[in-house]
Amino acid sequence: MIIPIKKVKFQLNTTVKYSEMSANLRLVFRNKYLMKLKIIVGLLFLSCYSVFGQAQITEAPLNTTILNDSGALQKRAIRKNIPLTNSIQKAYKAGTRDVSGRPGPNYWQLKTDYSINANLNPETQTITGSETIALHNNSGDKLNQIVLRLDHNIYRPRVPRGFSVPAETTGGMVVTRIKINGTEIDLKASPPRQSSQGQQKIEKSFAVGLDQTVATVVLAKPIDARSVATIDIDWHTKLPGGEGGQGHRMTQRWESKLFQPTQWYPRLAKYDDLRGWDTNVYLGPSEFYNNFGGFDVKIEVPAGWLVSGTGVLQNAREALAPFVRERLASALKTDAEVMIIKEGERGVGKALLPRNKNVWHFLAEEVNDFAWATSNQFVWRSTRANIPNKGYVPVHMFYLPERANLFKNAGKNARHALEFYSKLLIPYAFPQLTLQDGPSAGMEYPMVINSNQGAADHETFHQWIPMMMGTNETRYGWMDEGFNQYSNILSDADARGKPFNIDRLGQQYGSISGNEDEPMMMWNANYGGTFYGFQTYGKTMMMFSMLGGVVGDNAMNAAIKKYMETWKFKHPSPWDFTFFMNKELGRDLNWFWYYWLFTTESVNGSINNVTAQGEKTQITIHQAGEMPSPVILKVEFADGNEKIKSMPNAKMVDDKTAIVKWNEDVWFNGNRDFQATLDFGKRPIKKITLDPFGRFPDSETKDNVWTSK
Ligand SMILES: [Zn+2]
Q1: For the whole prediction, is pTM greater than 0.70?
Q2: Going from the N-terminus, what domains does the chain have, and what CATH number goes with each?
Q3: How far, in Å, from the CA of 444 to the mean position of ligand 1?
């Protein structure tokens, strides 16, 4: 999805950092800290004393690496690995993932095939549906329960939500029947009492949480490992309309004339090798983690209503007049945009054929969701995009004619995005892309984007992540939205015929770092709170700006492409991504991943001292932050006849400017000062700039420049 820019806008940390405090203030801070420490130690002492009698208490030493950054003695502890949590260790042990960042020999994922029959009644604004899910349990585990995602329960009056508020509360997703492997589940059955001996055998299956966004069905008869189970569910849900809601996906219709159903059917939650069932509740802002599989969907609407959606329409011959089908075929033969159904052509007897039952039948293979839209007022325009190794795919736009201005550039923007991201990553895998008009204008589903021209580029990128590579958005939003924001920069430059530029982004992180809510691996995106926007959308492009500064932008982009090729239609974890990048780039970057993903630290570099020593120049580079970085200097020479000698780690960018680079390992001894020696010969140096491309997080850049007097 896209969130309004005011929400993405980074909250700057306005508190003064310790390193920026005056000496007096530092003393006050230090004394306060000491006092607090003394109180804590005192309390500990009091509580321990009675137990241990003669406990010896020595005051805990202050951690000078954290509290004091000036002076020669203190070192910093540079961490060169990343935490391996229980979940990833479990996967390595089981061989489902590999430390090289690739799927392991025993990799598995669930597959879910859905057959859905649904009916939309515009008068009651309600969808009534029944579905069959074929659950391919490809794991080696017996499933004692299944977990269902009932997202529409977020519209019930009393459920947990993030900053999303529906404009209209409804009765939510009302599940009326569940059958598993042919056995009816008694939805009114209550959980058995826990016996004092612990878990007892379940005699009768039961469901809990059917009025919540996540429900569990505990099974009397478990689903066997490596078997296929059948789950039948009947339900109905009213699509919320109205005004005054907040957040995405909180309005799904305009009165009774346009419906944009999303997350509209009960979905089977993800069960994976990392954590088993994903039971994160749906709070609104952060998104999904879905299984891949096929969809066979039949949607019935009243006569005269046009339906768009995920997949390929199977019964176009029954539904669409011959002239409409001819125009559709012709749209694939030209770069021009073709009106498929014009304003005056809408309705039965014109663009739509008369039928007894107006069922629209869609099929989709290997997708992780299904979304659609319908209106009796839609017009339909199409164009095409040229996909490498595939040829032309149609790009459809369904919108209200009075909003045509919002779709003026939509086809062009979506086509550029499809073609550009196909080259940047992997070719677009799906047979079509559809842009749907409606109240949700910035949301993505497989082959469907609820977007006009404004967010067309961003939402189209989502066809790659998470639609072709199913990252866990709920937990690791940055692997989805963060990659997206970064890639949008490249796409935008390409659309304007310019080279992309990610300078300065990495440096900017220096003025944001330090807020405890922003490390992406410390906070599950679902619970990111006020920093959700920054940690999910903003931080990754800054991280990639620095990574490009370490390994080169082109090498980084090529490695990301390989990562996408390796994990397409699978579910990579953050460890898979980081270790894959290390391997692909041939470089141990764990120090980099550690600081960016697990901490709030920054580099805060400066030039502290410059002295001439004969023909050489000694520069003291200081890093006040905990995150190390390569040292990159731009050296500008004065005019003159003296020859500029070459240095092995320097590159002349013109006849008076050199870029000199030392790798990050110059800091691995823990020192905060590094003596950089320039050996360019007798030509006087006019100016030296540290981090000239602004790639390394730094809250104060004035101290990065030295000029000769
Ligand atoms: Zn997005």
Answers
A1: yes
A2: 5-51 (no CATH), 92-106+485-597 (no CATH), 108-192+200-291 (2.60.40), 605-707 (2.60.40)
A3: 7
